[in-house]
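Workshop exercise sheet. Pairs work together: one partner reads the sequence aloud, the other fills in the structure field after running the prediction. Swap roles for the next sheet.
Pair: D.N. / O.F.
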Amino acid sequence: MHSRIERIWWSRGEPPLLLRLFEPLYRVINNINLKRRATQPAEPPLPLISIGNITAGGSGKTPFAIWLAHALKTEGYAPVLLCRGDGGSNTMPTLVDEAADPAIVGDEARLLADASGCPVIASRDRIAGTHMAAELGNIIILDDGFQYRHLARSCDIVLIPSEGVGNGHLIPAGPLREPVAALQRADIVVRTGDEDEQASCSPLSADREWRWQSQPAGLIDIMNSGAEAPASLYAATAIARPQRFFDALGKSGFELTGSRSFPDHHRFTQSEVDALTQHPDVAITAKDAVKLVPLWPKDKPLWLLKLQGSGEPGLIEEIIQHLKKEP
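Structure field:
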């Protein structure tokens, strides 16, 4: 069902009437929520960069946040990443480390901690999370913050996937969380996806759209089983937009013997893992790895597709310019 909805969202045709009937209801609820959030936003104790989107899932926020954290460190900043901890059970502000249980702090929070080399805070109360961050660094990167109006920010970055806004409809008829006009609130609009996909996209924003891409950078066996890299793989993942992962494996030269997708933030059961281990060589994403490794047989390879993010020249400088502006 999920994959069928996704195909409808990202096609160019009109969605079914049943989905379009619910679109006005979503618009009304969204407008009510925006009015409720239209209070004076709280000032965070540190400069804050928000990374968000206007479409549901799969725009590359997590890899972009990791890239941005590394880029800011290179520029002399000490970033702290702040996220909700989606998929986790914890409700209190929590400092996430490489030993944290994804079932408690969330899979994306754990991935950010593993890959960024920066302090990561998972907090449903993001205002409280900023005060914890003030003790750990000198700048905050807020994940999925575009619709969160309760915090002021120095720079509002919105990511748009290479497919743009799909069929252009609001949820549930399409992928839009807000109308495209919401991009007027953004300080920086970034188009994600590979170079070929981006070249065919029409601009959605009147301002400049920057380019950023995440490219496959090799396959590694994260179980260190000693197995040789295979020519064919079985792909399994629990991310939004799984087809993008499957396509990346194909573009990297691997033959796919099959694939299986799970819902975003899915918690794998041991029986599901046992079923996956029946395939000789299984490929996953970094977001899946933080949940699968503890359940995976130690002597069986588990292949992780590494990704390397890169922004066009001038992007990080543009972000820093917003940080230097007087409030």
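Discussion prompt: The two ends are 47 Å apart (CA to CA). What would you look at next?
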